[in-house]
Structure prediction request, 261 residues.
Amino acid sequence: MPRGKATMRIVVGMGTGRSGTLSLSRLIGSQADSVCFHELNPACMKWSETPQTVRSMISEFQAVLGGGPRDVTVDFTAPHKGSELGRLRALTSIRAIGDVAFYYLPYVPMLAGLDSDIRMPCIRREKKAVVDSYAKAMRMPTRHRSGISGWIKTQFKGPPAPRYRNHWVVHDGKRFVTNEKWDSCFPKFQAPDLKAAIGLYWDHYNRLAEGYAQTYPEKFRIFDIDDLNTETGQRAILSFCGFENTPSLGKFHFNAGQAAN
Prediction:
């Protein structure tokens, strides 16, 4: 069966993170003459405070689709960008290009108002699964210091207490580990602990997403994470993004353990 064709379109995918966003980028990027990144440039992003970064990305994508230079601004401190860049430069023609990242949600009104055919699929995963997955991902590896004297070792029995990142609260680095790049990409909440903060984030994110789905139904649409693993669901996502006559693609939702956030 021949691979499906795509319109000249930009795709900006979204989701809370830990919700299938990496899988969505792979689904879009697997289509003929298409390239889709995952969290292309988080180093230059902030939650709702960096519209120029988003506009610059769209301008670069428009230039690529128009036959111009295949140059995009990439955060190389984040892993797994080389393969998409290689595909971008190797394809004979580009008919669709995009990026998928949680931090684009506040920019939906701006993106919807741009003079460009942008489609914004948003993947939703149930709250408990997202909270549990993020909480696990936020745990920092335990490091044992070498050269500690025997006397000191006897004073501290057992392994050191684990430390965690928490992107969703303002903190001074004492209770949680700071991360300059990713901390600024998330909204902040008042919460007693890590899981409560992630839960508030899930509530806020999906409340905004539902509002955007009603306001911009032709450009922004919510899909369930299970849609990534069914032929009907995949075709619905791809059709919304402008792809037609797509082949059956098989399983696309994987454990996104390598995701930066």
In short: The two ends are 37 Å apart (CA to CA). The chain has nine helices and seven strands. The longest helix spans residues 194-215.
